[in-house]
Amino acid sequence: MANGAAVGDRSTLSRPNLPALFAAIRAAGYAIVAPTVRDGAIVYGPVERVEDLPIGWTDRQDGGTYRLVRRDDAAVFGYNLGPTSWKRFLFPPHERLWTAERKEGSFTVTPEPTDTTRWAFFGMRACELAALDVTDTVFLKGAVADPTYRARRSRILRVAVQCGQAARTCFCTSMGTGPAVTGGADLILTEILLPGPHRFLVEVGSPAGAEVVDRFAESLSPAGPDDDRLARETVERTAGSMVRRMDPTGLRDLMAENLDHPRWEIVANRCLSCTNCTLVCPTCFCSTQEEVPDLDVRSVERWRRWDSCFNLGFTELHGASVRKSGLSRYRQWLTHKLGTWHDQFGTSGCVGCGRCISWCPVGIDLTEEVAAIRAAPRSSGVEARGR
Amino acid sequence: MSEISEEVREAIGRHPFFAGLDPAFVREAAVGAEPRTFGPGTLVAREGTPAETFVLVVAGKIALEVGAPDRPTLTVQTIGPGEVLGWSWLLPPHRWRFDARAVKETHVLALRGDRLRPALAAHPAWGFEFLRRFVPVLAERLENTRVQLVDLHAR
Amino acid sequence: MLGDRTGSPGGASDVPLAPLPYQVRSVVRETPDTATVAVVPRGSRRIGPTRPGQFVMLYAFGIGESPIGVSDETDGVLYHTVRDAGRITHALTRLTPGDLLGVRGPYGHGWPMEAARGKDVVIVAGGLGLPPLRPALREILRDRDAYGRLEIVYGARTPKDLVYYAELQEWRRRADLRLQVTVDAAGRDWYGDVGVVTTRLPDARFDPERTVAFVCGPEIMMKFTAQALVGRGVPAESVWVSMERNMKCAIGLCGHCQFGPSFVCRDGPVLSYGELAPRLGVREL
């Protein structure tokens, strides 16, 4: 094509032409992972067809609650976040790192072959792009980059969607991560249900996105004069409808100075240490290593598995855990996520997606916990802590 | 009182515990005091016996021992030059609470408790200054015992 | 402050987190549950040179890995003193000459040797805290004139818990350092000092304002020792402690070793007491 699409280009894709986008993404060499309905939730998984998307479904979420409900329209993206996050496709829950074999009095290590699948993450929300930035910082910007994350990360296509609604658990506006997609995506979709025909505004976010657009340009039409405005209004409406809030100012210091706050005990009395929050969190990155020998220990496999700071054995040292109490483990999770993450990675570990609120079996809500601590902060952490 | 050796008085005044105290008090403390030497392995004090002296360690090393019928004798602390041995002489019933044994040849100054106690009682200024030096010794031993109690080397 | 501290980003292997094959050259039993294992590469590949205070991941084939300090590196031989305190360290202390094991590293920031130059150096070790301090001590002794007074205080629970007995004798004979050894409790056959390690500090001779202290041992011992040193007038920033936490990856990616904002594997294990003091007062951090 002589005049290919350029970054920033906007066009309109009619709902009936959505399969053309899928086809173009495939033609560009990607397999598609997208939201799909499974086990009563909207999860991310490989999809074949547009019909695999949760068309006409929405979710009702609140502290400790997640329910799928039928919509009275056929919206393609008429829901928010489910329990999965994209991190599982870059940092799999269970992954073999290498195998080793004893040979002639020594051993040889064979690394796991690099996963060369090129995934298109279809339907990434603004907060999830922010989470991707966070995990990029964790896995790629330290002294040692994680090679398997890097290999997978280098091959993804990010197809973002600007949210047309907010769940009751969403608080991306507080964390400054959404709902508008402001960067970090290859393509940005906004679903327009009304007025006029069901359609999507498609914006090119990167050369990789432009390449996809070029492959199905005939299915696109120039963005109508109202589409830009409608897309903007959609995002504004979503932002305005958000009910949860968390004041992000000074969270690092608030956490550091309140390690002895009585609120930890109150929340710890509710917390079951089930690890759900860390599993659904799009930025939690802790892992453990497992040694899997065969029967005669001639060969072994080394696996990496997601771990959680809520597990008692997480801090095991010489047979005892450093963080024995539930209090200390919840405190570690929240003060890391909101506080020391800034020290370690120069950013918050929380993007305001609200998954940990929905999927906590007892409905612990970090925005409430932060508000409670902020309402009655300790003046000095060290002084009040005693020993 | 005639039983003062000038040499002993000076030695007491040089000991860190007494250094800088009112010379009149040092003089009083020196009444009946005497230098004593203990050979390696000999007892400086025996548990349960009358604690008649305030012992200033000048040289050597004294081990505080705890004995129990069902286990070997255990040394729980050693005391060296510049330090003082115990306070049993000061507090009723004036009996030693531990065995104290010289680990190597040890030179001490033995001050008479029956002279010190009335002197301290009669002169509150001396008494106060004396306790101001004694309380840190107690505090330090207490703190060390606490540290020992938490077992620094516990895994 | 940390500019002169040296570290290395990762292992020598190109396979991430993969150990290199080493074999045991010798084993010395230090105490009933502690052994010093000397290892050499099994093959042509070896980990990079280690700096005093760094650690490696020692790998018992088929069992797993454990972070272990480097207690000496001489002529290409790595020495590690390991206490049997779990499944993996049990296997490591049971190794015999010729046995195969894996090594990756070295990892972490060690003792700030540069910061110690020209200063009095106070080394305080508790129990198995001595091994990770030995390379620092050796480096000082190799270039003795570059440092001021050298005071070593070593405490252990009982006389039989003391490691490197022969070397202690050798150090005691030296005129260019002062060694004090103390135990928490002892029988009659012990002629040395008895009392927790902090009781020996008042006898250590150093100029607090121009002193650097390296402290290694159980966390509670390091806390009390650091407090005592600061009490003697040593600036908290000049007191360095070596922290220990659960570690799986040793390269700052697994999250296990966090101690407040620090990843002990990557930012430590040696950290300044000035930075750590508030955290050491928080339980279960």
For the structure shown, list the relevant keywords.
heterotrimer, B: 155 residues, alpha+beta, Jelly Rolls, four-stranded antiparallel sheet, 4 helices, C: 285 residues, alpha/beta, Elongation Factor Tu (Ef-tu), domain 3, Rossmann fold, 2 domains, seven-stranded antiparallel sheet, seven-stranded mixed sheet, 16 strands, 20% helix, disordered N terminus
Description:
- The complex is a heterotrimer of chains A (387), B (155) and C (285).
- Helices cover 31% and strands 24% of the residues of chain A.
- Chain A has 387 residues and is an alpha+beta fold.
- Chain A has an eight-stranded mixed sheet with strand order 3-2-8-9-10-11-1-12, with helices on both faces.
- Chain A is globular and about 65 Å long.
- In chain B, the strands form two sheets. Chain B has a four-stranded antiparallel sheet. In chain B, strands 2-7-4-5 form a four-stranded antiparallel sheet, with no helix packed on it.
- Chain B contains four helices and eight strands.
- The longest helix of chain B is centred in the last third of the chain and has 27 residues, at 124-150.
- Chain C is built from seven helices and 16 strands.
- In chain C, the strands form three sheets. In chain C, strands 4-3-7-1-2-6-5 form a seven-stranded antiparallel sheet. A seven-stranded mixed sheet of chain C has the order 11-10-9-8-12-13-16, with helices on both faces.
- The two termini of chain C are 25 Å apart.
Task: Enumerate the strands of the largest sheet of chain B in spatial order, edge to edge or round the barrel.
Answer: 1-8-3-6
Alpha-carbon Rg of chain B, integer: 16 Å
Any low-confidence stretches of chain B, pLDDT <50, length ≥5?
A: none
Kindly state the mean pLDDT of chain A as a whole number?
94
Strand content of chain B: 25-35%
Rg from Cα of chain A: 23 Å
Q: Widest sheet of chain A: strand order? A: 3-2-8-9-10-11-1-12
**Main structural class of chain A:** alpha+beta
| Overall average pLDDT of chain B | 91
Query: Unreliable runs of chain A, pLDDT <50, ≥5 residues?
Result: 380-387
Shape of chain B: globular
Q: Categorize the overall geometry of chain A.
A: globular
Distance between the termini of chain A: 72 Å
Q: CATH architecture of chain B, please? A: Sandwich
In CATH, the topology of chain B is named: Jelly Rolls
Work out the number of β strands of chain B.
8
**Most residues in contact: chain pair:** A-C, 57 and 44 residues
